[in-house]
Amino acid sequence: MSFAWLKHYMPRGIYARAALILLLPVVVVQIVVSVLFAQRHFEGVTVQMADTVEREIRLVLQELADLPADADLQFAVADVADPLDMGVERIPASDLDAPNRRDWDDFSGLVVIRRLSEQVPDIRSFDLTGGATVRLAVASDAGPVAITFDRRRISARNPHQLLVYMVFFSVLTTMVSFIYLRNQLRPIRRLARAAEAFGRGRNMPYTPGGATELRAAGTAFVDMRNRIERQIETRTLMLSGVSHDLRTPLTRMRLSLSMLDDDERKALEQDVDDMQGMIDAFLDFAKGDGEGEPERTDPIALATTVVEDAQRAGQPVTLKEVEGQGTVRLRPLAMRRALDNLVSNAVRYGGRAEVSVRITDKSLRFRVEDDGPGIPEDQRADAQRPFTRLDLARNQDKGSGVGLGLAIATDIARGHGGTLRLGRSSALRGLRADIVIAR
After folding, report:
1. Strands 431-438, 363-370: parallel, antiparallel or unpaired by DSSP?
2. Is there a contact between 294 and 322 (Cβ–Cβ < 8 Å)?
3. Which structural domain, as residue segments, surrounds residue 117?
4. Residue 222 located in a structural domain
5. pLDDT digit of tens for each residue in the chain (439 aa)?
6. Is residue 145 situated within a structural domain?
């Protein structure tokens, strides 16, 4: 039998789930104990006491059976009623048809009424209100009478004490358990915050703590974070060093080319410019999203600046749509470089490009669309990999490129805890590139 449907009703957070694991057994135990207590205490004890009172009532009724209709009941049955601590008096016949009365929370009263009705059919009505006295309307041989006696003779004293103690100590132990649970879950929440921050490109101070297993997980996270940081640093230094070393021979080549004739120099200078562009792309990829610390940034102003710079460079780029407002924690230089790469790709492979920004309470989305040929769905994942060129002939026709534009944008989006999504533009029928970042 599958219990997959239970997942829809389970809490999401670990604190809520731990609280459920803690409270569920307590509640179940309380319910079981309450049911057993009601059966053994309310029913069992009350039935035994009702049987005793039933025999005493029969003695009183036997004494009434031999009395004339006009006899003084209190004096006539005193020898029997007084030792039994019962009161007897005449009542109107209409009181025999009165409804049974009891307090709403008098559960033992239900047992009393049911038991005495079965044992003594002459009892026509019960009045258990007030809790101190029981009043029975009885159709005796001497006429309608009321028999009264102390309620404590037919019900257990203070039957609620066990339930009160059980609830009180359950609440007390639950509060203590919650305090202990919070202290145990605090290292997990700290580890989750540190991992989330690192996934968004921020290095939050973190020291492993808590139980042995949590310390082991925290230590593994710190080691993993250090290895990733060393790898990123090594990649950056390697690409930066290679790119820097290549600039010197390129500079000498430019000087040498300047001495050649114009006809011979033009093609060679184009090759040198292409190599310079490749080196710049390597440097951008090496930097990744590591430029500066995250800060509160206006995404609309950032996108507006990118569009205006592209327009000044003669590129057909427009700011199409802006939705929402506010600031988001971003690395402005890195995010601007990502948008520049998306815009450059859009105008390289299409006739025009449109940029839009959408800000909501939960996310930020930059969108760049073009009217170019787009990217087939089965190749979009490959397009985001470094040094991937889907169509070499087309890329060469459109200008130099090493396949790092989308890879840089993807790297920067991931460094902000977001993602780069590629799709088909419904408006321009070309490529749609979305950078989506959770706020």
Report:
1. antiparallel
2. no
3. 4-153
4. no
5. 556 666 676 777 777 777 777 777 877 887 777 777 666 666 778 888 889 999 999 998 888 887 776 777 778 888 888 888 999 988 898 989 899 998 887 777 888 899 999 999 999 999 998 778 999 999 988 888 999 999 888 876 655 666 677 778 878 887 887 788 778 788 888 888 888 878 766 778 888 888 788 888 889 988 888 888 888 777 777 766 766 666 677 777 777 777 666 666 676 776 677 677 666 666 666 655 555 678 889 999 999 999 999 999 889 999 988 888 888 988 888 888 889 989 988 898 888 899 999 999 889 999 999 998 888 888 888 888 876 666 543 444 444 455 677 888 888 888 888 899 999 988 888 999 999 998 7
6. yes
Q: Of 87, 121, 153, at which residue does a domain stop?
A: 153
The residue to which tokens 């297993």 are assigned: 213
Q: What is the CATH number of the domain that holds 350?
A: 3.30.565.10
- Kindly state whether residue 318 falls inside one of the protein's structural domains: yes
**CA dihedral of residues 253, 259, 261, 262 (deg, nearest 10):** 60
Residue 307 domain-assigned? yes
Strand partners, 365: 358, 436
Share in percent of the chain as helix, strand, coil (round to 5): 60, 15, 25
User: Which backbone phi and psi does 329 adopt, to 5 degrees?
Assistant: -75, 110
Any residues with CB less than 8 A from the CB of 384 and at least 6 apart, and which? 406, 407, 410, 420, 422
Q: How far is CA 81 from the centre of its chain?
A: 68
Domain end residue (candidates: 153, 185, 207): 153
Domain count for the chain, please give it.
2
Provide the β-strand partners of residue 431: 424
In this prediction the pTM is: 0.51
Q: For residue 33, which amino acid is it?
A: V
Which of 294, 254, 18, 55 is closest to 154 using CA atoms?
55
Q: Which amino acid is at 61?
A: L
Helix, strand or coil, per DSSP, at residue 292: coil
Listed in order, strand segments (DSSP E) in 309-383 are: 317-323, 328-330, 353-359, 363-370
